[in-house]
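seq as requested:
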Amino acid sequence: MIRLSLSDWLDEGRIKRQDANRAEIQQLLAVVDRDLADANVRRLSVDRRFTTAYSAALQLATVVLRASGFRASSTSAGHHWVTLAVLPELMGPEQKDRRVYLDSCRRARNQADYDRIDVVSKADLQELLEDTLAFRGETLDWLRRGHPELA
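struct tokens:
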């Protein structure tokens, strides 16, 4: 298995250096909170709620990337994948399992958005909601410790 690093993704142009500011981080966190609230709207389909919960998790990963001074290139394919892939490098190796889990959610989200219905179960949705809430807390703690000017 080939392991790419932050410098590899920079060299490939899949991410770029770009500083963030507090207002941007706060707006991203507001998107997270909106998406988490929307993912709990029970009259929506489980698939739609799952894709919205995934969006919240992706925005949290984007917060980590942006607070670290990088931006995923939206002009290259796979910007969701890259945003998730850098989590262990930026937050620490304990995020490796989350990266793997969220990547599986990314694939399910793609199927639910583009290919078919009834991709995920209520249990899948509940697991993603719980993980995203935990990730939110970890991201806020990470911001306060490492980037207090952005928190």
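The helical segments are 6-12, 22-39, 46-67, 79-85, 87-91, 96-114, 122-146.
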